[in-house]
Design goal:
The complex is a heterodimer. By secondary structure, chain A is an all-alpha fold. Chain A contains ten helices and two strands, in the order αααααααααββα. The longest helix of chain A has 57 residues. In chain A, 37% of the residues are buried. Chain B is mainly alpha-helical. In chain B, strands 1-2 form a two-stranded antiparallel ribbon. Chain B is elongated and about 100 Å long. Classes of the chains: A mainly alpha, B mainly alpha. Chains A and B meet through helix 8 and helix 9 of A and helix 9 and helix 11 of B. Chain B: It comes from Zophobas morio. Chain B: Its main location: membrane. Chain B: It is a multi-pass membrane protein. Chain B: It is found in: Cell membrane.
């Protein structure tokens, strides 16, 4: 099987984690690992595309050796890039918000992008603070117990890896289209208004009415929001990729349980050895489940703050953008741009909720999959182990953000309902003010 | 193309299958003679049905667009269009996913069997068959009655609709429209004479077949659920004799001890394979449940009790193997039922989701229409007719989904209430594992969004009543 994965830099040695040696430019060949050679798969493919994007935007440093020249260079690049593109823009928006305080329309216009950027700040902080642990998480994706052991499992993992990549690419494309429509909207909607206004509001220390200043401010706005948006989405799809890994591994475990005894030939002479092997298989499944739970706990621990903040702020963002949409005529480009933006924000949360829901559903199936294995003829030890396992799998695996928001479709429904009710209230207040 | 073999579910549901094929669904299997010409003929029949359905549906939709000025007309036409959307959806859904339906119908082709439990199995199978037939009759009667009622109500009252007076914008006049079952736009004038007659006949055909498409598929789904429930009943019933089989001799002397009348000492011991009954037609008459057990058992040396004497539970090796085979039958049969229910959910879950989506919108609009009822007239009759029909469709599958949930959760009850404390170690472990599996009831879900149960029906009914009350207040 040809190497289709971009190699990563560091090599770490753990009991179950496989060694992979490569450089960031992809010169050296990776070592193949033990196990069934037919079903070789690098599970880090779930998140490699996202990691490359995040590297590019300077949010997350690659694995360089301590104090190497490359590390320092990257740090400088990151500081300059992030500082220019992100921090300055954030400061300008905060200043704008303070400036526009009191005027509801101006405030909502100023706020919806501001809130997204604040959440992005938090995500950036998470990645920078937990950089080493995130790398350990990514490398631990390749532990031996997560690898597929038959054709069905291999297909499931391959299909989910493909899906993860497609989702990332589609989402980045949607972001680009949204920002493109924002760039274009001031020129298309300018009939009746005095001159062309900037697509987004921001506070600048110079006046943006004259020609060179306007073009500069316009170009800066477009560049920073586009870059910020793409960076934000790469971080979001990284998190959803991690959740997809959990869901894919649960499918693999379900399959492993159902086909538990199929690997062993029914040989009446070797009953004793066969019993031992079958028991060992079951124990392997139990360990697999423990590993999945451990992985899920690690993912939850690292990203719990980001997800909570995104949910809380997402409600406000959707409400604000719905309000903005109600202020402009329906067929204008700005309306269309706002709607796209809203769809992007909702999609971010939907991805997490959908795959969190998949995790819940698949972990519910574990008891049934364990029951479907051929347990009647096996030893008493096997049946007792099976009983312990089935007792544990009565409780499904739910991913929680901050211990309260379960990642499931119910939470997503609740988010939409809350945004709608806040929007209705805001609309009422605005109408009363106008009247 | 599948080989034509009438067995299992296909044999039980043959009347349903024939009716479904007759109504024009794309079910092209299950024919004795599937040669090229006949196959093409049947395919042609299905395609012609599809074309007619879509044409008439298109005419309805065009009429909706043309008459969107008046709010009342808009509401009425939207309800009609949604009603037939649901029928078309089921038709197209079956055509697209027929492979899953064939798979579900073929799942029960080779059930296992055990001589001890043949009588119970047959009894519950007959019960399931009776219930499925009864359901089919009810559906046929209900569909025909609805079609006839729809046709007859067309001829009651005036066939008019109100439009704006062309002279005076504020007044409305009543303008005659063709006396047809559903309001539709036709490129020809269907007011009277031959075109009217032909259009009327075409519409009668359309209404009857559209209702049949939807109701027959729903009844197929419910028949599957009836079958699964009866199998679960069978499993619950045989739990008790199974426990008695394995009971230890010092705490409880089972009456069924004489079940183990050992045949001659030189007979081989074999476990019964899954397709034993079908391979040994001539032995069917030999076994009556409580009499001789003979047969051939495979001598798999799974447990060594020494020189074939009395084992740890006071049972001989033969008895131990008998218990093991009975447990194996029970577990394999239960797994088979679980696979059947999973296949049913895969085949029909999305269709139920689409049904609930269209029904929700349609029932909301019907609640609005119901507030405008002024007396016992044609309008009231049609609105109430639509309401009852839509609610009956939802009730139809909710009640069987609920029964499945109840049956599967009561298996644990049955496992607990049998004399498990008298059973052997192996039997007790078996009961434990079964209890773990049955703690979660088997249910059909509408593509992961909701569960089909009476709760769903209650929430739909409650929502309709709430909307009605609120809208009446607002008037």
């Amino acid at each position: 099987m040809t190497a289709t994965y971009p190699p990563l830099n560091k090599c770490t040695v753990h009991d179950d984690i496989v060694i992979r040696v490569a450089t960031i430019t992809g010169h050296s060949q990776p070592k193949t690992m033990s196990g069934s050679a037919n079903f070789e798969l690098d599970l880090r493919e779930f998140v490699t595309l996202n990691i490359k994007c995040i590297h590019f935007f300077g949010y997350f440093s690659p694995e360089f050796a301590e104090n190497s020249k490359k590390r320092i260079l990257f740090r400088i690049y990151a500081t300059v890039f992030v500082g220019f593109a992100f921090v300055l823009s954030l400061l300008s928006q905060i200043a704008n918000m303070i400036d526009a305080f009191g005027d509801m329309e101006k405030m909502t216009e100023a706020s919806f992008l501001l809130f997204t950027n604040i959440v992005q700040c938090l995500k950036l902080y998470c990645f920078m603070k937990y950089g080493a642990r995130v790398w350990r998480l990514v490398h631990s994706l390749n532990r031996k117990i997560f690898k597929p052991r038959n054709a069905t499992q291999y297909d499931v993992l391959k299909r989910d890896i493909g899906r993860s990549k497609i989702i990332t690419k589609l989402f980045l494309l949607a972001c680009t289209i949204t920002y493109a429509s924002w760039c274009v909207s001031p020129f298309l909607d300018k009939k009746g208004e005095n001159g062309v206004r900037l697509p987004l509001s921001g506070w600048y220390p110079f006046s943006t009415k004259e020609t060179p200043a306007f073009e500069l401010a316009y170009a800066y706005q477009i560049f920073t929001t586009w870059v910020g948006g793409l960076g934000d989405i790469s971080m979001d799809t990284f998190m959803s990729g991690a959740i997809m890994v959990i869901s894919a591994e649960l499918s693999v475990l379900n399959n492993a349980l159902e086909t538990l005894k199929q690997r062993f030939v029914d040989d009446p002479q070797k009953i004793r050895e066969e019993e031992k092997l079958v028991n060992k298989e079951l124990v392997r499944c139990v360990i697999h489940y423990k590993n999945i739970i451990g992985f899920a706990n690690e993912v939850t621990y690292l990203f719990t703050d980001c997800i909570t903040a995104q949910f809380l702020v997402g409600v406000i963002i959707v409400c604000m953008s719905m309000f903005q949409m109600s202020l402009v005529p329906v067929m204008s480009f700005r309306f269309f741009a706002m709607m796209l933006y809203q769809i992007c924000v909702l999609m971010e949360m939907f991805l997490w909720c959908y795959y969190g829901n998949e995790v819940i559903l698949k972990s519910d199936l574990l008891t049934q999959s364990a029951y479907m294995c051929e347990w009647v003829d096996n030893s008493k030890e096997f049946k007792q182990n099976l009983l312990y396992f089935m007792t544990r799998t009565q409780f499904n695996l739910q991913l929680y953000a901050s211990g309260y928001f379960a990642l499931s479709l119910q939470t997503f429904k609740a988010i939409i309902k809350s945004s709608w009710s806040y929007f209705a209230v805001l609309n009422q207040v605005h109408d009363q003010k106008m009247a | 193309m599948m080989k034509f073999k009438v067995s299992g579910l296909v044999a039980d549901l043959m009347p349903n299958i024939r009716l479904i094929q007759g109504s024009g669904h794309f079910m092209l299997n299950y024919h004795a003679d599937n040669s090229g010409a006949l196959h093409t003929l049947r395919l042609g029949y299905c395609c012609v049905t599809l074309v007619f359905m879509l044409l008439q549906y298109g005419c309805n939709f065009v009429n909706l667009v043309l008459e969107r000025g008046d709010v009342n007309d808009l509401a009425a036409n939207t309800i009609t269009v949604l009603f037939f959307t649901h029928c078309i959806t089921k038709f197209v859904y079956f055509a697209v996913r027929s492979k899953l339906f064939y798979r579900t119908l073929g799942i029960w082709n080779q059930p296992n069997s055990h001589p001890l439990f043949v009588e119970s199995n047959n009894r519950y199978h007959a019960l399931a068959l009776k219930k499925m037939r009864r359901l089919l009759y009810i559906i046929i009667v209900w569909t025909s009655f609805s079609a006839i009622a729809w046709t007859s109500i067309t001829f009651v009252g005036e066939s008019v609709h109100t439009t704006k007076d062309p002279e005076n914008e504020n007044l409305t006049i009543s303008e005659p429209i063709p006396r047809l079952l559903v309001r539709a736009w036709y490129p020809w004038n269907a007011m009277s004479g031959m075109p009217h007659m032909l259009t009327l006949i075409f519409q009668v055909y359309y209404v009857f077949f559209a209702l049949a498409h939807a109701n027959l598929l729903d009844s197929l789904f419910c028949s599957w659920l009836i079958f699964a429930c009866e199998q679960l009943q069978h499993l619950k019933e045989i739990m008790k004799p199974l426990m008695e089989l394995s009971a230890t001799l010092d705490t409880y002397v089972p009456k069924s001890a004489d079940l183990f009348r050992a045949p001659s000492a030189t007979s081989q011991d074999n476990l019964i394979e899954n397709d034993y009954n079908s391979k040994n037609e001539d032995l069917k008459g030999v076994y009556s449940t409580r009499q001789e057990l003979g047969g051939h058992f495979r001598g798999a040396a799974l447990q060594n009790f020494g020189a074939g004497g009395v084992g740890p539970n006071g049972l001989t090796k033969k008895q131990e193997l008998m218990v093991r085979s009975a447990i194996k039958y029970w577990v394999e049969r239960h797994k088979h039922v679980v696979r059947l229910v999973t296949a049913i959910g895969d085949a029909y879950g999305v269709a139920l989701l689409l049904h609930m989506l269209t029904s929700t919108i349609m029932l909301t609009l019907l609640a609005y229409q119901a507030t405008k009822i002024t007396g016992v007239d044609k309008y009231a009759a049609t609105v109430i007719g639509y309401l009852l029909f839509a609610l009956a469709q939802v009730f139809h599958f909710c009640i069987f989904g609920n029964r499945l949930i109840e049956e599967s959760s009561s298996v644990m009850e049955a496992a607990y209430s049998c004399h498990w404390y008298d059973g052997s170690e192996e039997a007790k472990t078996f009961v434990q594992i079964v209890c773990q599996q049955c703690q979660k009831a088997m249910s059909i879900s509408g593509a992961k969004f909701f569960t089909i149960s009476l709760d769903l029906f209650a929430s739909v009914l409650g929502a309709v009543v709430t909307y009605f009350m609120v809208l009446v207040q607002l008037k």
